[in-house]
Amino acid sequence: MAVVAQPKENPWEVALRQFHRAADNLPLKRGIREFLAYPHRELTVNFPVQMDDGSVRMFTGYRVHHSTVLGPTKGGIRYSLRVDLDEVRALAMLMSWKCALMHLPYGGAKGGVACDPGQLSRGELEHLTRRYATEISIIIAPDGDIPAPDVGTNDQIMAWIMDTYSMHRGHSVPAVVTGKPISIGGSAGRREATGRGVMIVAREAARIHGIPFAGSRVVVQGFGNVGSVAAYLMHDQGCRIVAVSDVSGGIYNPAGLDPRAALRHMQQTGRVAGLPGAESVSNDELLELPCDFLVPAAIEGQITQANAARIQAKIVVEGANGPTTPEADEILADRGILLVPDILANAGGVTVSYFEWVQDLQALFWSEDEINERLERIMVHAFNGVVELAREREVELRTAALIYAVKRVADALLIRGIYP
Ligand code: GLU
Protein backbone atom coordinates (compact mmCIF):
# COMPACT_ATOMS: atom_id res chain seq x y z
CA MET A 1 0.00 0.00 0.00
CA ALA A 2 1.69 3.14 -1.18
CA VAL A 3 0.26 5.79 1.12
CA VAL A 4 2.96 8.21 2.22
CA ALA A 5 2.02 11.43 3.93
CA GLN A 6 -0.89 13.75 4.44
CA PRO A 7 -1.26 16.04 1.42
CA LYS A 8 -0.90 19.67 2.34
CA GLU A 9 -3.51 21.14 0.00
CA ASN A 10 -7.11 20.47 -0.93
CA PRO A 11 -6.83 18.20 -4.00
CA TRP A 12 -10.08 19.46 -5.53
CA GLU A 13 -8.84 23.07 -5.44
CA VAL A 14 -5.58 21.94 -7.05
CA ALA A 15 -7.45 20.04 -9.80
CA LEU A 16 -9.65 23.08 -10.48
CA ARG A 17 -6.63 25.40 -10.69
CA GLN A 18 -4.95 23.06 -13.17
CA PHE A 19 -8.15 22.87 -15.22
CA HIS A 20 -8.56 26.67 -15.32
CA ARG A 21 -4.92 27.12 -16.31
CA ALA A 22 -5.57 24.88 -19.34
CA ALA A 23 -8.93 26.52 -20.04
CA ASP A 24 -7.21 29.95 -20.11
CA ASN A 25 -5.30 28.64 -23.14
CA LEU A 26 -8.43 27.52 -25.00
CA PRO A 27 -11.25 29.40 -26.67
CA LEU A 28 -13.89 27.73 -24.46
CA LYS A 29 -17.39 29.15 -24.32
CA ARG A 30 -18.18 30.31 -20.80
CA GLY A 31 -20.94 27.74 -20.24
CA ILE A 32 -18.71 24.88 -21.40
CA ARG A 33 -15.94 25.93 -19.04
CA GLU A 34 -18.36 26.10 -16.14
CA PHE A 35 -19.94 22.75 -17.03
CA LEU A 36 -16.56 21.00 -17.03
CA ALA A 37 -15.61 22.53 -13.67
CA TYR A 38 -18.43 20.56 -11.98
CA PRO A 39 -18.53 16.83 -11.23
CA HIS A 40 -21.57 15.44 -13.09
CA ARG A 41 -22.86 13.29 -10.22
CA GLU A 42 -21.68 12.36 -6.74
CA LEU A 43 -22.86 9.47 -4.59
CA THR A 44 -22.05 9.29 -0.87
CA VAL A 45 -22.89 6.07 0.96
CA ASN A 46 -22.77 5.38 4.69
CA PHE A 47 -22.99 1.68 5.36
CA PRO A 48 -22.51 -0.86 8.16
CA VAL A 49 -19.98 -3.69 8.22
CA GLN A 50 -20.09 -6.58 10.65
CA MET A 51 -16.59 -6.88 12.14
CA ASP A 52 -14.90 -10.12 13.24
CA ASP A 53 -15.56 -9.40 16.93
CA GLY A 54 -19.30 -9.18 16.26
CA SER A 55 -19.49 -5.38 16.46
CA VAL A 56 -20.95 -3.26 13.67
CA ARG A 57 -18.94 -0.35 12.28
CA MET A 58 -20.13 2.41 9.95
CA PHE A 59 -18.04 3.33 6.91
CA THR A 60 -18.39 6.15 4.38
CA GLY A 61 -17.74 5.62 0.69
CA TYR A 62 -18.09 7.65 -2.49
CA ARG A 63 -18.39 7.26 -6.24
CA VAL A 64 -18.12 10.39 -8.37
CA HIS A 65 -18.68 10.67 -12.12
CA HIS A 66 -16.95 13.80 -13.34
CA SER A 67 -17.82 13.68 -17.04
CA THR A 68 -19.95 11.34 -19.11
CA VAL A 69 -19.37 13.18 -22.39
CA LEU A 70 -16.93 10.83 -24.14
CA GLY A 71 -18.45 7.54 -22.98
CA PRO A 72 -19.04 5.43 -19.89
CA THR A 73 -17.04 6.63 -16.91
CA LYS A 74 -13.83 4.94 -15.80
CA GLY A 75 -11.65 5.20 -12.76
CA GLY A 76 -10.30 3.42 -9.73
CA ILE A 77 -11.54 2.80 -6.20
CA ARG A 78 -9.30 3.87 -3.36
CA TYR A 79 -9.28 2.55 0.22
CA SER A 80 -7.51 4.99 2.50
CA LEU A 81 -8.12 6.94 5.68
CA ARG A 82 -7.62 10.16 3.74
CA VAL A 83 -10.49 9.50 1.31
CA ASP A 84 -13.09 12.28 1.31
CA LEU A 85 -15.41 13.82 -1.25
CA ASP A 86 -12.94 16.49 -2.40
CA GLU A 87 -10.20 13.94 -3.02
CA VAL A 88 -12.54 11.66 -4.98
CA ARG A 89 -13.86 14.64 -7.00
CA ALA A 90 -10.34 15.72 -7.90
CA LEU A 91 -9.32 12.21 -8.94
CA ALA A 92 -12.51 11.80 -11.00
CA MET A 93 -11.77 15.02 -12.89
CA LEU A 94 -8.20 13.84 -13.54
CA MET A 95 -9.60 10.60 -14.99
CA SER A 96 -11.70 12.61 -17.48
CA TRP A 97 -8.59 14.36 -18.76
CA LYS A 98 -6.48 11.18 -18.68
CA CYS A 99 -8.97 9.17 -20.75
CA ALA A 100 -9.44 12.05 -23.21
CA LEU A 101 -5.69 12.49 -23.62
CA MET A 102 -5.20 8.79 -24.33
CA HIS A 103 -8.15 8.71 -26.78
CA LEU A 104 -10.02 6.16 -24.67
CA PRO A 105 -13.81 6.27 -25.16
CA TYR A 106 -14.47 7.08 -21.51
CA GLY A 107 -15.43 9.85 -19.15
CA GLY A 108 -13.80 10.15 -15.73
CA ALA A 109 -14.88 8.69 -12.39
CA LYS A 110 -13.39 7.75 -9.05
CA GLY A 111 -14.51 6.00 -5.91
CA GLY A 112 -13.23 5.43 -2.43
CA VAL A 113 -13.94 4.26 1.07
CA ALA A 114 -12.47 6.02 4.11
CA CYS A 115 -10.78 3.10 5.86
CA ASP A 116 -7.37 1.64 6.63
CA PRO A 117 -7.33 -1.65 4.71
CA GLY A 118 -4.19 -2.73 6.58
CA GLN A 119 -6.20 -2.78 9.83
CA LEU A 120 -9.00 -4.99 8.46
CA SER A 121 -8.98 -8.78 8.36
CA ARG A 122 -9.49 -10.47 5.00
CA GLY A 123 -13.07 -11.28 5.98
CA GLU A 124 -13.79 -7.68 7.05
CA LEU A 125 -12.27 -6.38 3.80
CA GLU A 126 -14.50 -8.72 1.82
CA HIS A 127 -17.65 -7.68 3.75
CA LEU A 128 -16.78 -4.00 3.36
CA THR A 129 -16.11 -4.42 -0.37
CA ARG A 130 -19.28 -6.40 -1.07
CA ARG A 131 -21.43 -3.92 0.83
CA TYR A 132 -19.79 -0.90 -0.84
CA ALA A 133 -20.15 -2.59 -4.25
CA THR A 134 -23.85 -3.14 -3.54
CA GLU A 135 -24.30 0.47 -2.42
CA ILE A 136 -22.70 1.87 -5.60
CA SER A 137 -24.24 -0.77 -7.88
CA ILE A 138 -26.95 1.78 -8.70
CA ILE A 139 -24.38 3.81 -10.66
CA ILE A 140 -21.81 1.25 -11.91
CA ALA A 141 -22.37 -0.92 -15.01
CA PRO A 142 -20.31 -2.40 -17.85
CA ASP A 143 -21.71 0.24 -20.20
CA GLY A 144 -22.09 2.99 -17.59
CA ASP A 145 -19.24 3.20 -15.08
CA ILE A 146 -16.38 0.72 -14.76
CA PRO A 147 -14.25 0.76 -11.56
CA ALA A 148 -10.64 -0.47 -11.26
CA PRO A 149 -7.95 -0.71 -8.57
CA ASP A 150 -6.24 2.33 -7.03
CA VAL A 151 -4.36 3.07 -3.78
CA GLY A 152 -5.23 0.43 -1.17
CA THR A 153 -7.20 -1.88 -3.50
CA ASN A 154 -6.13 -4.77 -5.73
CA ASP A 155 -7.26 -7.56 -8.05
CA GLN A 156 -8.90 -9.53 -5.21
CA ILE A 157 -11.08 -6.54 -4.33
CA MET A 158 -12.04 -6.20 -8.01
CA ALA A 159 -12.96 -9.91 -8.01
CA TRP A 160 -15.32 -9.36 -5.04
CA ILE A 161 -16.90 -6.36 -6.75
CA MET A 162 -17.36 -8.32 -9.98
CA ASP A 163 -18.85 -11.26 -8.07
CA THR A 164 -21.20 -9.09 -6.00
CA TYR A 165 -22.47 -7.23 -9.08
CA SER A 166 -22.86 -10.53 -10.96
CA MET A 167 -24.81 -12.16 -8.09
CA HIS A 168 -27.31 -9.31 -8.21
CA ARG A 169 -27.69 -9.72 -11.99
CA GLY A 170 -27.90 -13.50 -11.94
CA HIS A 171 -25.07 -13.97 -14.45
CA SER A 172 -21.37 -13.12 -14.68
CA VAL A 173 -20.60 -9.56 -15.74
CA PRO A 174 -16.80 -9.44 -16.06
CA ALA A 175 -16.78 -6.08 -17.90
CA VAL A 176 -18.16 -4.22 -14.85
CA VAL A 177 -14.64 -3.84 -13.39
CA THR A 178 -11.08 -3.97 -14.72
CA GLY A 179 -7.89 -4.96 -12.97
CA LYS A 180 -9.45 -8.35 -12.17
CA PRO A 181 -7.51 -11.59 -11.80
CA ILE A 182 -6.83 -13.17 -15.21
CA SER A 183 -8.80 -16.29 -14.20
CA ILE A 184 -12.10 -14.33 -14.22
CA GLY A 185 -11.61 -12.13 -17.29
CA GLY A 186 -8.68 -9.93 -16.32
CA SER A 187 -6.12 -8.94 -18.93
CA ALA A 188 -2.58 -10.09 -19.40
CA GLY A 189 -0.27 -7.17 -18.66
CA ARG A 190 -2.78 -5.17 -16.55
CA ARG A 191 -0.93 -5.63 -13.25
CA GLU A 192 2.26 -4.13 -14.65
CA ALA A 193 0.61 -1.65 -17.00
CA THR A 194 0.86 1.56 -14.95
CA GLY A 195 4.51 0.94 -14.06
CA ARG A 196 5.26 -0.05 -17.66
CA GLY A 197 3.73 3.20 -18.89
CA VAL A 198 5.86 5.14 -16.38
CA MET A 199 8.98 3.38 -17.70
CA ILE A 200 8.03 4.14 -21.33
CA VAL A 201 7.45 7.87 -20.78
CA ALA A 202 10.59 8.13 -18.62
CA ARG A 203 12.56 6.63 -21.50
CA GLU A 204 10.97 9.08 -23.97
CA ALA A 205 11.60 12.01 -21.61
CA ALA A 206 15.28 11.02 -21.37
CA ARG A 207 15.41 11.02 -25.17
CA ILE A 208 14.03 14.55 -25.57
CA HIS A 209 16.09 15.81 -22.63
CA GLY A 210 19.25 14.39 -24.18
CA ILE A 211 20.28 12.16 -21.26
CA PRO A 212 21.11 8.47 -21.69
CA PHE A 213 18.39 6.28 -20.14
CA ALA A 214 20.66 3.36 -19.28
CA GLY A 215 22.77 4.34 -16.28
CA SER A 216 20.43 7.16 -15.18
CA ARG A 217 19.77 7.42 -11.44
CA VAL A 218 16.18 6.90 -10.32
CA VAL A 219 14.40 7.71 -7.03
CA VAL A 220 10.94 6.21 -6.51
CA GLN A 221 8.54 7.37 -3.79
CA GLY A 222 5.89 4.73 -3.06
CA PHE A 223 6.44 1.02 -3.57
CA GLY A 224 2.93 -0.16 -4.35
CA ASN A 225 1.73 -1.48 -7.68
CA VAL A 226 2.97 1.59 -9.58
CA GLY A 227 6.30 2.38 -7.90
CA SER A 228 7.58 -1.17 -7.54
CA VAL A 229 6.85 -2.15 -11.15
CA ALA A 230 8.24 1.15 -12.52
CA ALA A 231 11.39 0.54 -10.44
CA TYR A 232 12.07 -2.99 -11.69
CA LEU A 233 11.16 -2.23 -15.32
CA MET A 234 13.48 0.82 -15.31
CA HIS A 235 16.14 -1.35 -13.65
CA ASP A 236 15.67 -3.86 -16.50
CA GLN A 237 16.42 -1.00 -18.94
CA GLY A 238 19.75 -0.36 -17.22
CA CYS A 239 18.67 2.50 -14.93
CA ARG A 240 20.21 2.67 -11.45
CA ILE A 241 17.49 2.66 -8.79
CA VAL A 242 19.17 4.62 -6.01
CA ALA A 243 16.26 5.00 -3.58
CA VAL A 244 12.75 3.67 -3.00
CA SER A 245 10.25 4.16 -0.18
CA ASP A 246 6.92 3.07 1.19
CA VAL A 247 4.64 4.66 3.76
CA SER A 248 7.01 3.90 6.64
CA GLY A 249 10.18 5.32 5.06
CA GLY A 250 12.81 4.81 2.40
CA ILE A 251 16.12 3.18 1.58
CA TYR A 252 19.04 4.71 -0.31
CA ASN A 253 22.17 3.40 -1.96
CA PRO A 254 23.91 5.72 -4.45
CA ALA A 255 25.50 2.66 -6.09
CA GLY A 256 22.04 1.27 -6.86
CA LEU A 257 19.50 -1.10 -5.29
CA ASP A 258 17.94 -4.27 -6.67
CA PRO A 259 14.23 -3.38 -6.79
CA ARG A 260 13.15 -7.04 -7.00
CA ALA A 261 15.10 -7.76 -3.80
CA ALA A 262 13.38 -4.72 -2.22
CA LEU A 263 10.02 -6.11 -3.34
CA ARG A 264 10.76 -9.54 -1.83
CA HIS A 265 11.94 -7.85 1.37
CA MET A 266 8.71 -5.82 1.50
CA GLN A 267 6.57 -8.91 0.91
CA GLN A 268 8.38 -10.70 3.76
CA THR A 269 8.62 -7.88 6.31
CA GLY A 270 5.85 -5.49 5.26
CA ARG A 271 8.24 -2.62 4.48
CA VAL A 272 11.25 -1.73 2.30
CA ALA A 273 13.27 -0.39 5.27
CA GLY A 274 15.89 -2.81 6.52
CA LEU A 275 16.95 -4.10 3.10
CA PRO A 276 20.61 -5.13 3.58
CA GLY A 277 23.11 -2.81 1.88
CA ALA A 278 21.00 0.34 1.97
CA GLU A 279 20.85 3.27 4.36
CA SER A 280 17.50 4.51 5.56
CA VAL A 281 16.02 7.88 4.58
CA SER A 282 12.74 9.56 5.41
CA ASN A 283 10.17 10.16 2.68
CA ASP A 284 10.91 13.90 2.81
CA GLU A 285 14.66 13.36 2.43
CA LEU A 286 14.11 10.89 -0.39
CA LEU A 287 12.37 13.49 -2.56
CA GLU A 288 15.44 15.73 -2.36
CA LEU A 289 18.10 13.14 -3.22
CA PRO A 290 20.42 13.74 -6.20
CA CYS A 291 19.10 11.79 -9.21
CA ASP A 292 18.11 12.01 -12.87
CA PHE A 293 14.54 10.76 -12.42
CA LEU A 294 12.23 11.35 -9.48
CA VAL A 295 9.11 9.16 -9.69
CA PRO A 296 6.52 10.17 -7.06
CA ALA A 297 4.28 7.08 -7.10
CA ALA A 298 2.35 7.41 -3.84
CA ILE A 299 -0.32 10.03 -3.26
CA GLU A 300 -1.09 13.66 -4.05
CA GLY A 301 0.52 16.77 -2.60
CA GLN A 302 4.10 15.53 -2.19
CA ILE A 303 6.07 18.14 -4.19
CA THR A 304 4.97 21.54 -2.95
CA GLN A 305 6.31 25.06 -2.67
CA ALA A 306 7.97 23.92 0.58
CA ASN A 307 10.37 21.46 -1.10
CA ALA A 308 10.30 22.16 -4.88
CA ALA A 309 13.36 24.41 -4.72
CA ARG A 310 15.37 21.53 -3.25
CA ILE A 311 14.38 18.82 -5.75
CA GLN A 312 17.57 17.72 -7.49
CA ALA A 313 16.08 15.51 -10.23
CA LYS A 314 16.41 16.46 -13.88
CA ILE A 315 13.07 14.86 -14.75
CA VAL A 316 9.99 14.22 -12.59
CA VAL A 317 7.65 11.45 -13.80
CA GLU A 318 4.34 11.47 -11.93
CA GLY A 319 3.42 7.85 -11.25
CA ALA A 320 0.87 9.05 -8.67
CA ASN A 321 -2.15 11.23 -9.36
CA GLY A 322 -1.64 14.84 -8.34
CA PRO A 323 1.71 14.56 -6.52
CA THR A 324 2.82 18.10 -7.50
CA THR A 325 1.01 21.31 -6.56
CA PRO A 326 0.62 24.19 -9.07
CA GLU A 327 3.10 26.34 -7.07
CA ALA A 328 5.67 23.54 -7.20
CA ASP A 329 5.04 23.13 -10.97
CA GLU A 330 6.16 26.74 -11.46
CA ILE A 331 9.23 26.37 -9.28
CA LEU A 332 10.31 23.18 -11.09
CA ALA A 333 9.74 24.78 -14.50
CA ASP A 334 11.75 27.88 -13.54
CA ARG A 335 14.58 25.58 -12.50
CA GLY A 336 14.53 23.77 -15.86
CA ILE A 337 13.24 20.47 -14.40
CA LEU A 338 11.13 18.58 -16.93
CA LEU A 339 7.88 17.19 -15.48
CA VAL A 340 5.86 14.44 -17.17
CA PRO A 341 2.35 14.95 -15.73
CA ASP A 342 0.18 12.28 -14.09
CA ILE A 343 -2.50 12.15 -16.77
CA LEU A 344 0.20 11.09 -19.24
CA ALA A 345 2.77 9.36 -17.04
CA ASN A 346 0.42 6.98 -15.21
CA ALA A 347 -2.08 6.47 -18.04
CA GLY A 348 -0.73 2.98 -18.83
CA GLY A 349 -3.06 1.54 -16.17
CA VAL A 350 -6.31 2.85 -17.54
CA THR A 351 -5.14 2.15 -21.10
CA VAL A 352 -4.75 -1.56 -20.37
CA SER A 353 -8.00 -1.37 -18.35
CA TYR A 354 -9.59 -0.30 -21.63
CA PHE A 355 -8.00 -3.31 -23.36
CA GLU A 356 -9.38 -5.53 -20.57
CA TRP A 357 -12.89 -4.12 -20.97
CA VAL A 358 -12.79 -4.55 -24.76
CA GLN A 359 -11.60 -8.16 -24.36
CA ASP A 360 -14.36 -8.87 -21.80
CA LEU A 361 -17.07 -7.40 -24.04
CA GLN A 362 -15.83 -9.46 -26.99
CA ALA A 363 -15.00 -12.54 -24.89
CA LEU A 364 -11.82 -12.72 -26.95
CA PHE A 365 -8.45 -12.41 -25.23
CA TRP A 366 -5.12 -11.05 -26.44
CA SER A 367 -1.58 -12.17 -25.69
CA GLU A 368 0.66 -10.24 -23.29
CA ASP A 369 2.97 -9.30 -26.18
CA GLU A 370 0.06 -7.82 -28.09
CA ILE A 371 -1.06 -5.86 -25.02
CA ASN A 372 2.45 -4.51 -24.36
CA GLU A 373 3.00 -3.56 -28.01
CA ARG A 374 -0.30 -1.67 -28.17
CA LEU A 375 0.46 0.04 -24.85
CA GLU A 376 3.91 1.08 -26.06
CA ARG A 377 2.46 2.56 -29.27
CA ILE A 378 -0.28 4.50 -27.46
CA MET A 379 2.06 5.84 -24.75
CA VAL A 380 4.72 7.00 -27.22
CA HIS A 381 2.11 8.58 -29.47
CA ALA A 382 0.51 10.46 -26.57
CA PHE A 383 3.90 11.56 -25.25
CA ASN A 384 4.99 12.93 -28.63
CA GLY A 385 1.66 14.70 -29.10
CA VAL A 386 1.97 16.44 -25.73
CA VAL A 387 5.59 17.45 -26.36
CA GLU A 388 4.69 18.88 -29.76
CA LEU A 389 1.76 20.88 -28.37
CA ALA A 390 3.92 22.15 -25.49
CA ARG A 391 6.47 23.47 -27.99
CA GLU A 392 3.80 25.05 -30.17
CA ARG A 393 2.06 26.78 -27.26
CA GLU A 394 5.24 27.43 -25.25
CA VAL A 395 3.78 25.83 -22.13
CA GLU A 396 4.88 23.04 -19.77
CA LEU A 397 3.90 19.44 -20.47
CA ARG A 398 1.11 19.45 -17.85
CA THR A 399 -0.62 22.44 -19.35
CA ALA A 400 -0.16 21.01 -22.86
CA ALA A 401 -1.62 17.64 -21.82
CA LEU A 402 -4.57 19.38 -20.15
CA ILE A 403 -5.17 21.70 -23.12
CA TYR A 404 -5.30 18.66 -25.40
CA ALA A 405 -7.58 16.67 -23.11
CA VAL A 406 -9.96 19.49 -22.16
CA LYS A 407 -10.33 20.45 -25.83
CA ARG A 408 -11.32 16.88 -26.74
CA VAL A 409 -14.01 16.80 -24.05
CA ALA A 410 -15.20 20.34 -24.88
CA ASP A 411 -15.44 19.54 -28.62
CA ALA A 412 -17.52 16.44 -27.90
CA LEU A 413 -19.76 18.42 -25.56
CA LEU A 414 -20.30 21.12 -28.19
CA ILE A 415 -21.27 18.64 -30.87
CA ARG A 416 -23.56 16.70 -28.53
CA GLY A 417 -25.21 19.95 -27.39
CA ILE A 418 -26.86 20.83 -24.09
CA TYR A 419 -29.88 18.68 -23.29
CA PRO A 420 -32.84 19.38 -23.55
N1 GLU B 1 -6.64 3.96 -10.71
C1 GLU B 1 -5.91 4.03 -11.96
C2 GLU B 1 -5.73 5.47 -12.39
O1 GLU B 1 -5.73 6.36 -11.58
C3 GLU B 1 -6.53 3.15 -13.03
C4 GLU B 1 -7.94 3.49 -13.40
C5 GLU B 1 -8.57 2.47 -14.34
O2 GLU B 1 -7.89 1.55 -14.76
O3 GLU B 1 -9.76 2.63 -14.62
O4 GLU B 1 -5.50 5.76 -13.54
UniProtKB/TrEMBL annotation:
Keywords: NAD, Nucleotide-binding, Oxidoreductase
Any Pfam family hit: ELFV_dehydrog
Domain Glutamate/phenylalanine/leucine/valine/L-tryptophan dehydrogenase C-terminal per the UniProt entry, residue ranges: 187-417
Extent of the signal sequence: none
Active-site residue list: 110
Family: Belongs to the Glu/Leu/Phe/Val dehydrogenases family.
Protein's name in the database: Glutamate dehydrogenase
The organism of origin for this protein: Candidatus Segetimicrobium genomatis
